[in-house]
Amino acid sequence: MRALGLWSLAILAAGTASLKSNQKRVTDAPTRNINAATNRYIVEVEKGNIAYMTRQFAAPSSRNSTYFRQFDCGDIFDGLVVETEIDNVDTLRAVHGVANVWPMKTVPMASAMQRVKAAPEAKYHNYSVHQWTGVDQLHAQGIRGKGVTVAIIDTGVDYTHKALGGCFGPGCKIAGGYDLVGTNCTNPPSTAGSGNKMKADMSWKGTLTMRNDIQRTQIKTLWTFMATEPMLIGVAPDAQLLSFKVFADNPWDTDEDVLIQAFCDAYGAGADVITASIGRPNGFADDPWALIASRIAEKGVVVTISAGNEGNTGPFYSSSGANGHSVLSVAAINVTGNPNISTTDPSAAPIPALFTSWGPTNELLLKPDIGAPGFEIVSTVPDNNFESMSGTSMAAPYIAGIAALYISKHGGRELHGPGFAKLLANRIVSSGVSIGWAADDIDLDFRAPPFQVGTGLVNALKVINYDTQLSFEPFSLSDSIQFRSRWAANITNSGNQTVIYSFELEPQAGVEILDPHYGIKTAYQLEPLRIVPKVQLPKHLVVPPGATRQVDFIFDFPQSVDDDYLPLYGGKVWVRGSHGEDLSIPYGGAAYDTEKAFDTMFLGEPFITDWGANWTWSFNADKDRFDFIELSARLSYPCFHLRWDIYDSYWTENHWQFPPVVGKLGYVGSAATMRDADTFWYYDPSRMDKDQTVSFPLLRVPRGYGKHWWFGKLANGSHIAPGNYTLRFAALRPYGNPNISDHWDIMRTPVRNIQVLPYNRTNSTTH
């Protein structure tokens, strides 16, 4: 049974204090299959063209797409989902009225471990995580989230659980929601039986009721809002909840279009806060889900998304939706000690959960934003039980709960306007308390950097009660070439006395990330370093009551660093008020040239497995199950654009044109490779379908190993004809211009004169 707690919004006491080394055994499982692409595409339509595009794809003579759907996103997004066997990114972008195209990817559901059959004993209440964050004191003030609506996007909710009110609908704690997928995500409601086209009204999103057969299976609940267990009180126990179910019983994956529609539905339902404990490694801020989450935040809705559980992979492995602008990416903190006991024991101090994913984004934007308790958290599971779980899935709803507390006291977007979500995100981020370094070893002489935990452990008292408001963008300094030195922030004093603010730099742990064999070090290889940039800080700033003043900061690029080892550095700028209020702004950058550092995108040479001297294939897997091309490559850095193109044998690189057009300059087409090949050891025709393909180019590919099986199918749906061909496999370098050949890292092994034999023959080479 699927545990209910990954998006549990109540996040409670974590049983007893435990050794930090135990973190490695109780986390959400990391994701597999770094590409996870499908033959579906998310298409954004230019404003005013949605009706035209809908007719175009609905016409019987149109692009022969298997089906399409139109998103129902109001003023957030005009777009379609298209499944096609004859198009790829290049051809869809060329359609009149198309603004952008993303290959759609699957997103896995993380699993959690370490089950507890009943709630912890009362004595464990003294070790509640709320004592670390100040939530317990806010509850004592009567601030409990009343009147706030929080939307949970995840696996569903067991509303019969006594801790969640035991009912569903108006007047209940679980007031409503949608089931977007039914029991089988591969065949969601209302998508079958409509010929070559599917309805464009998104009617598959279901109803407001949750069926018993759904709510009893792989569902998760919201602990952050639990109110009926006095020992396990949630962050915002009086908040009202909406549940949007985006994972089916089988398979335990969902698709990006489902997530996007769920966010749009939550926005349309009037949610004040939206939270999701979902994601996959991506690292690009223009991912479609991240983009929609950003647009919703721009409308004033607070959005929190888990940072991911791939911490062992090291830096530059941030999670998809959480990368959005003004979206709060939440890291997990281990707070299993007692904050009321003075001790020098490192095991009692808050440290990063070792599994929490590292940033920054691939554009060198600071992520994650903030940390919250996420290790050994007790949450609800079906049948009135409880489990102890770990993961950033526990941390994201904790921040959503704090947002609900703020809104219940100070009002939300209806009162403050569309800029409210940005305002509250700044309050939450600036509240962070610095915590000790932990990657492999614990070293409390260093502070965990913003690339790992944002500004640190959230302080809810600062968020709700401080008179000082900072308005800022995180100081993402970029690298040595694109270094941005000048930054500004606004300080608002909403109190009734004049405040003098002073400023202080807190350098945090720097790290050298170069691994000569794998490109970037894993977290367990990282060692903390002292890397301190010079910063021109104001001596002080006087802000009268009710006034706002701008303050400027000028950073110098750090000196005395060895850029050959690819150092990252970061920390915080503290803003300290004479009335005792202390807040901070994160800064961070790369002390190297990204383009130079990752000029070679491929670690080692991409290779075709067991190719012989003749390099001939007939792609007849019915006769010879090894008669296909297996191409493997390891990316040293996340790749925005990965191509596998086929040209006539005479083609050379000086003929490069972007995007290539079939029939021009010798271009034959892009390869369409078998889906999910990198999850299998070998091809087994009895249980795999080689016709389930994904067409190149692939976009926004995480760093790491990828394997591609090509059976001769092209992106336009045709099968390559017998003849001699040139193969071009290439990755666009960071910040590269795709129109310029030199900006691509191209497979150098000779791949000219690859011969394709007639289909009824068998490859003469040994594979």
UniProtKB/TrEMBL annotation:
GO terms assigned for molecular function: serine-type endopeptidase activity
GO cellular component, one term: membrane
Keyword vocabulary terms for this entry: Hydrolase, Protease, Serine protease, Signal
Extent of the signal sequence: 1-18
InterPro entries to which the protein is assigned, alphabetical: Peptidase_S8/S53_dom, Peptidase_S8/S53_dom_sf, Peptidase_S8_Asp-AS, Peptidase_S8_Ser-AS, Peptidase_S8_subtilisin-like, Peptidase_S8_subtilisin-rel, Peptidases_S8_5
One protein family per Pfam: Peptidase_S8
Domain annotation Peptidase S8/S53: ranges: 145-411
GO biological process: proteolysis
Similarity comment text for this entry: Belongs to the peptidase S8 family.
PANTHER family assigned to the protein according to its UniProt record, in alphabetical order: PEPTIDASE S8, SERIN ENDOPEPTIDASE
Protein name: Peptidase S8/S53 domain-containing protein
Taxonomic source organism: Trichoderma arundinaceum
Taxonomic lineage: Eukaryota, Fungi, Dikarya, Ascomycota, Pezizomycotina
